[in-house]
Amino acid sequence: NHQTENITKWLMTSSAILDVMIGAVSMPLGVSELVHNGRWTLGWEVCRIRLPLSFVFSGILAYHVMCLSVDRYLAVCKPFLYKRLPTRTAYVMIFLSWIIPIACVMIPVFSGITRLGVEHIIACIEKHDICVTAYNIPAMKTITSLLFYLPFVVTYTAYVFILLASQEQEKVMFRATSQPTRAIVTKTSPNKKANLIVGCMIACYTISWLPTWVLGLVISLEVHGVPYAWFLVCFWLASSNAALNPIVFCLNNSIRQTLFQLFFLSKYNKKN
C-alpha cells in the first residue's frame, strides 16, 4: 500500500529520531542525577533547560503516536480518502508534531509566564541540590492538557474506531472468502500488521508516560508532600519508552516483517 509505505514510514522514522534524542540528551542527565543519589550537580541553568526538554520530548512523542493513530484510522475507516492523500501529508504531520510541543513549552517557559506566582518556590529550589518542576498551576494545567490529555484522548478514540472497523472488516472478509484462503488473507493483511505496531506503540507510550503526567496533575492540584523518589521513578519510566519502541519494532516476528515491508520492500520493488 502506497500510503503505508510513505506516511506511516516517515512518522515512524521521525519517532525513531526522537527516541535517539531522548537517549542522547535526557538519559545522560538522569544518569548523573542517579549517580549522585538524586542530587543535582550540573547547575540550575542546566536544570532549567532539562525540565522543558522533558515536556517537549513527551509532547512530541504524544503527537507522533496520535498522528500514527489518525493515519491508521484513515487507512482502515476511510480507505478511499486515505489513498488520495499525498506523501507530503506525512511531512505536515511530522512538522506539527514537533512544532506544537516546542511552542507550547518553550514560549511560556522562556517568556517567564510559568514562573509567575511561584518565584518563592523557585528561589527555595535553587538553594537545594534538586531538579524538579516549578511552574505555576495554570501553566502546568495548560501544558499537560495540550501535550498529553488532548493527544491521549484523540489517540484512544481513533484506535477504538480502528478496532471496531477491523473486526467488521474481518467478519465481511470471513463471509466473502472460501475456507482455504481465509487464514492467508487475514494473516497477510497490511493494515492489520501496521495496526499492531501502532497499538504496541500506544501501549508502550501509555505505560511509560502516564505516571509522569498523573504526577504533574497531582502537583497542579497543589498536593503537597510528593516524595522526590517519585520524580526519579517517573523520569526513568518515561525515558524507558525510548528503549521500548525498538523492542516493539524488532523482537516480534510479525512486526519485523512489517517494518521490512514498510522501509525496504518498496525500494526493492521499485528497483525491479
TrEMBL record:
<keyword id="KW-0675">Receptor</keyword>
<dbReference type="GO" id="GO:0004993">
    <property type="term" value="F:G protein-coupled serotonin receptor activity"/>
</dbReference>
<keyword id="KW-1003">Cell membrane</keyword>
<dbReference type="InterPro" id="IPR000276">
    <property type="entry name" value="GPCR_Rhodpsn"/>
</dbReference>
<keyword id="KW-0807">Transducer</keyword>
<feature type="transmembrane region" description="Helical">
    <location>
        <begin position="12"/>
        <end position="31"/>
    </location>
</feature>
<dbReference type="GO" id="GO:0007198">
    <property type="term" value="P:adenylate cyclase-inhibiting serotonin receptor signaling pathway"/>
</dbReference>
<feature type="transmembrane region" description="Helical">
    <location>
        <begin position="228"/>
        <end position="251"/>
    </location>
</feature>
<keyword id="KW-0297">G-protein coupled receptor</keyword>
<dbReference type="GO" id="GO:0005886">
    <property type="term" value="C:plasma membrane"/>
</dbReference>
<dbReference type="GO" id="GO:0030425">
    <property type="term" value="C:dendrite"/>
</dbReference>
<keyword id="KW-0472">Membrane</keyword>
<feature type="transmembrane region" description="Helical">
    <location>
        <begin position="90"/>
        <end position="110"/>
    </location>
</feature>
<dbReference type="GO" id="GO:0007187">
    <property type="term" value="P:G protein-coupled receptor signaling pathway, coupled to cyclic nucleotide second messenger"/>
</dbReference>
<dbReference type="GO" id="GO:0030594">
    <property type="term" value="F:neurotransmitter receptor activity"/>
</dbReference>
<feature type="transmembrane region" description="Helical">
    <location>
        <begin position="196"/>
        <end position="216"/>
    </location>
</feature>
<keyword id="KW-0812">Transmembrane</keyword>
<dbReference type="GO" id="GO:0007268">
    <property type="term" value="P:chemical synaptic transmission"/>
</dbReference>
<feature type="domain" description="G-protein coupled receptors family 1 profile">
    <location>
        <begin position="1"/>
        <end position="249"/>
    </location>
</feature>
<keyword id="KW-1133">Transmembrane helix</keyword>
<dbReference type="GO" id="GO:0045202">
    <property type="term" value="C:synapse"/>
</dbReference>
<dbReference type="Pfam" id="PF00001">
    <property type="entry name" value="7tm_1"/>
</dbReference>
<protein>
    <recommendedName>
        <fullName>G-protein coupled receptors family 1 profile domain-containing protein</fullName>
    </recommendedName>
</protein>
<feature type="transmembrane region" description="Helical">
    <location>
        <begin position="146"/>
        <end position="165"/>
    </location>
</feature>
<dbReference type="GO" id="GO:0051378">
    <property type="term" value="F:serotonin binding"/>
</dbReference>
<feature type="transmembrane region" description="Helical">
    <location>
        <begin position="51"/>
        <end position="70"/>
    </location>
</feature>
<dbReference type="InterPro" id="IPR017452">
    <property type="entry name" value="GPCR_Rhodpsn_7TM"/>
</dbReference>
